[in-house]
Write a structure and sequence with these properties.
Elements lengths: L10 H33 L68 E2 L7 E6 L1 E6 L5 E8 L5 E10 L5 E9 L13 E8 L12
Parallel strand pairs: 1-7
Antiparallel strand pairs: 2-6, 3-4, 4-7, 5-6
Length: about 210
Amino acid sequence: MTMSPTRPLRPTLILGLLAVISLSACSVTTRATEDGADQRGAGAAPDTGGGAVGDPGSGGGTGDTKPGDTDPGDTKPGDTKPGDTKPGAAGPDEPITGAPAPAHPPSGDGALHVEPVPGVVDSLPHAIDRVSVAADGRTATVYWWGGVDSCYGLDEVRVERDADGMPVITVLEGTLPGLGDVACIEIALSKATTITLDEPLYLDGSQG
């Protein structure tokens, strides 16, 4: 048998083989990419719908709040929740206190009613403001402007009669005994005291 000499490969055949190899490589790469995508999709969590409030498929409920909205449980500065106590207010178990009552509350006439104080020194006569006489004609309330009761006290009320038989009333007020070097406030205070006259200031003509 006679062997024919080997012929060289043609360029067209070589190009065809290269094209087949390239297509095979692209097919393998595409398949690997699709398999990886399938594996990632199988492990992903189901979609819960992350749309805005009110959108179909939205995972947000009516309890979500938008920026600027106020939660029902929130309070603004200065608001008071039920059960809160403001500073200075008495709570249910705290005693409510007030200013103490004055030791000598004034009567309805606005004057401080006083009695003579034994041992008053340096007493001086004070001008009488007015005199109120009761229905019996003998009980009289004498009003005058005196010093503060922490420093000055009533010494006595003198009742004398002039030449015509008219009563002359003199109020004597001075410094309280044992006061020492205490500084006294120099203000006028309305004072009053009640006295009983030996004789009535007037007679009831209806009983004549």
